[in-house]
Design a protein that fits this description.
Length: 110
């Protein structure tokens, strides 16, 4: 699995997230969102740390209403840890890098 965060849109969602063979962290964000800018380094760190067992994608909310509605994103930044068609964990609002790593540890190392 390659390191790094992949930018996706509604059209890519099924292939990149639902059909992935590992859990996928979906990072919902917006260009106008200040807290999203603060969270980006933590999301990038998670992509690097867990590159062997996790795929990380980011999706801008405004141009992608289908996925935003499907995953009930009420505010940004928002995170959804998805495997297949199941949401393993979700979070809305900015979280610290430590909290993000803890959330991922609970699901990836269990």
């Amino acid at each position: 699995m390659s390191e790094g965060v992949i930018n996706i849109n509604d059209a890519d969602f099924e292939k990149e997230v639902l059909q992935a063979n590992v859990p996928v962290l979906v990072y919902f964000w917006a260009t106008w969102c200040g807290p999203c800018k603060l969270m980006s380094p933590a999301v990038n760190a998670a992509a690097a740390k867990y590159s062997d067992k996790l795929k990380v994608v980011k999706m801008e909310v405004d141009p992608n209403p289908v996925s935003v509605k499907q995953y009930q994103v009420e505010g940004v930044p928002a995170l959804r840890l998805v495997q297949g068609d199941k949401v393993l964990a979700s979070s809305e609002g900015a979280v610290t890098k430590d909290k993000l790593m803890s959330l991922l540890n609970n699901h990836l190392n269990g």
